[in-house]
Amino acid sequence: MPEAFDRGSTLEELEGRRWPPPPADATPMVRNVYELRHRPVGTLEPHELARLIGQDVGLPWLLPLAVEILRATAPKQAEGGWFDDDLLYAVVTRKPEVWAAVPELASDLAETVAGLTDVSRYVRQEIAAFLAARPHDA
Length: 138
Hints:
Elements: H1 11-15, H2 28-36, H3 46-54, H4 59-78, H5 85-92, H6 96-100, H7 103-114, H8 121-133
Helix pairs in contact: 3-4, 3-5, 4-7, 5-8
């Protein structure tokens, strides 16, 4: 995953490739993913990041942004505030191979989720699976 990148760039610019227009019969979700690839990554809202990450789109650039958001909001959750389960779910459910390639980012995420207390049972199960799948030395 890239160390630093221009958050004013779109996924298309960062990847250096353009997708063709979506198929005419594409679902609204697929059309939305195509549209979001044209937005600067630094302007994407947490629910938009969750949508893209959940589709494994732009992971080298979006996972660091998502973990940054999750880390920033985790202390508020611990104080009884709201926490974005959709973004958290999208991030912790990426394949173990994704996290094995970025052990430092995986460690940041593991540290962040360790302090979360008020997440749904389903998200808690996914957090446990994420933590269990991490290499022991990460």
